[in-house]
Design brief:
- There is one protein chain.
- This protein is mainly β.
- It has one domain (5-60).
- It has one helix at 55-60, and strands at 5-11, 18-23, 35-40.
- It has a three-stranded antiparallel β-sheet with strand order 2-1-3, with no helix packed on it.
- It is globular.
- The model has no long low-confidence stretch (mean pLDDT 82).
Length: 78
């Protein structure tokens, strides 16, 4: 996390949600194949983070898929 503070919610379909607090200077790795959302706790100042993904690697290995199910979050959900 470059600056700001907040938390991320991470989960797989049918499993409990896990909440991970973060602040500037923290390293947070979103687990592969999980639903996730990031929440900024200070609406007066945006949070900034740098995300690195393995999606291109997974696609090149032929191991890329998206699971959509009953518990899938809405893309417009906050």
């Amino acid at each position: 996390m470059i600056f700001g503070s907040g938390y991320s919610v991470v989960y797989k379909n049918g499993e409990p949600q896990k909440r991970v607090q973060w602040q500037a200077g923290d390293l947070f790795c979103t687990p592969i194949r999980t639903w996730h959302r990031h929440v900024n706790l200070d609406p007066s100042r945006p949070a900034r983070y740098l995300e690195i993904t393995t999606i291109p690697l997974m696609k090149s290995l032929g191991d890329w898929w998206i699971e959509a199910g009953r518990d899938s979050p809405s893309l417009s959900a906050k």
